[in-house]
Design goal:
The chain has helices spanning 3-19, 27-42, 49-73, 76-90, 93-108, 112-119, 132-179, 191-215, 218-228, 237-248, 276-304, and strands spanning 250-258, 261-269, 272-273. It is mainly alpha-helical. It has one domain (3-304). A three-stranded mixed beta sheet has the order 2-1-3. The two termini are 13 Å apart. The model has no long low-confidence stretch (mean pLDDT 91).
Length: 306
């Protein structure tokens, strides 16, 4: 891990904290439109694993080639600036927190209708009939899981492999979010994206879970991680959400409706029922964990020296 990458990561995190995500012409929006076009053309009649893999390569390869060529072509200072701007565009810490606040505030005010509308922007579950606890659960789970996906995993791969690593992770994670559903339409087509996302997210998810434990109720987080994570379908979301729920001392999971069908998700965490307070606590947990990573990066920079 070079000092150049460390400094670029710290500046990118500062930009995200001050400005949030780019408001216009976000690169992931452009990628999402291209991916949606490929899916519509290649995923007819249920699609196939091969078609999904080819579509994934058609999205990833041009972007990765452009990133690698620009890094090789640009002079040193410009390459550093490009890495800063690139990482800033793929992490979403402030945006995630803003989405959480947009659910928490109407929930505190007793405006359940607005809270449902806002949480529907964060999750894929059916939100129309959620009660206060259901809205709070959905927002809290999304904050914990997307903290791993939208912040810590991309930051991890940036520190390991520079901007190409962060971009690769974010592209795969975006395609998994679009195609990785276990439905008749996406079961085969999205399998390559889902498995690759599991692979790239395996270690960052566990580092995130441990960060949540260090920044919250440690013994509760570790106990829930050990006992509850194996019962989750996702090998990465399980540790993150179990440890996060344990760190917050809140109960998450349970029966949830997706696309008109009920899914009995395992109960995660312990302690109190989810509420607007749980959303605020999850935001503070994600922020403290980001601070922990910043402190760790500064410590590495000091030890490494000039």
């Amino acid at each position: 891990m070079s000092l150049s990458l460390l400094s670029a990561a710290l500046v990118a995190l500062l930009l995200d904290a001050i400005l949030g995500e780019p408001r216009r012409a976000h690169p992931l929006v452009v990628v999402g439109r291209w991916a949606a076009c490929l899916e519509q053309r290649g995923n007819r009649h249920g699609g196939s694993v091969v078609a999904g893999g080819i579509a994934l390569l058609c999205v990833i390869l041009p972007v990765m080639l452009m990133v690698v060529l620009l890094l090789a072509w640009l002079p040193g200072w410009a390459s550093w600036c490009f890495q800063v701007l690139g990482l800033w565009s793929v992490i979403g810490g402030r945006s995630l927190i803003e989405h959480g606040r947009a659910v928490e505030q109407p929930l505190v005010a007793g405006d359940l209708h607005t809270a449902r509308e806002q949480v529907a922007r964060m999750v894929s579950r059916d939100c129309e009939a959620l009660d206060e606890e259901g809205v709070a659960k959905a927002a809290t789970e999304s904050l914990l899981e997307n903290g791993a996906d939208a912040v810590f995993a991309s930051l991890f791969w940036f520190l390991v492999a520079g901007l190409p690593g962060a971009v690769l992770h974010r592209l795969v994670n975006t395609l998994d979010a679009m195609w990785g559903y276990r439905t008749s339409r996406f079961e085969r087509f999205g399998k390559v994206a889902a498995r690759l996302d599991d692979l790239l997210g395996w270690l960052p998810a566990r580092l995130t879970a441990f960060s949540y434990a260090l920044c919250g109720h440690f013994s509760g987080a570790m106990a829930c991680w050990r006992r509850q994570a194996p019962s989750c379908d996702s090998p990465n979301a399980g540790p993150v959400m179990a440890a996060g729920a344990g760190a917050l001392q809140v109960r998450l999971g349970g029966a949830t409706r997706y696309h008109g069908e009920w899914k009995d998700k395992p109960v995660l965490g312990c302690g109190q029922q989810a509420s607007a307070h749980s959303i605020d606590a999850a935001i503070r947990l994600v922020r403290r964990s980001m601070g922990l990573w910043v402190v760790a990066m500064l410590a590495v920079a000091l030890v490494a020296g000039p």
